[in-house]
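Troubleshooting: if your tokenizer reports a length mismatch, compare your output against this known-good record of 193 residues.
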Amino acid sequence: ILRNAFMNGAAQADVLILNMARGPEVVALYKAAKTMAAVPVRGAAPAWVALRPRIMKCLREKDIGRLRQLLLLPAGLLLLAGLLFATIIAAWGGNLMVVTYGVGYISAAPALLWLLVGTWVFGAASGWLNFACVISSKKIFGTGIYMVSMCGIVLGGLWYGVNGPTQMAQIVAGSLIVASILGWAFFMRQSAW
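Known-good structure output:
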């Protein structure tokens, strides 16, 4: 329950803080970028869902070496795909925002790039993390990962993210990347499972 609370808090705190600090117009820009950044991440989810039976088999057989391989190869490929997406967004993100939402949204392009990087690292390249938190015998650490993410977004958002959509996107991206690094560092150890 606590992990879900932190997950939901992390998913909504940025919008609430921006609304409080900057109002609905800025939130509209930010939410458009956030929505657009989430689209390619959804495409990565089936890869991790398809790997779940193999992950469970490795855990049953206590084959942590194979488990690491099973996680690292797709994560590496997804990071390369994310680099491609980020390059495309860096070059044409403004055009994409204009075509999708209209000319008034072109200023959300920098936020789109930051959010794409953060959500891609956390949601795509580390897409196995939520599943690992559920099945791990050390559930408190999984809860801690999401707590770090939420605290980073709330504290960073109140300190720096209040300055605008791009700044909030930088805070969110940084928080998600830190949470991913913590997840990888913890779950690559045999004792984590």
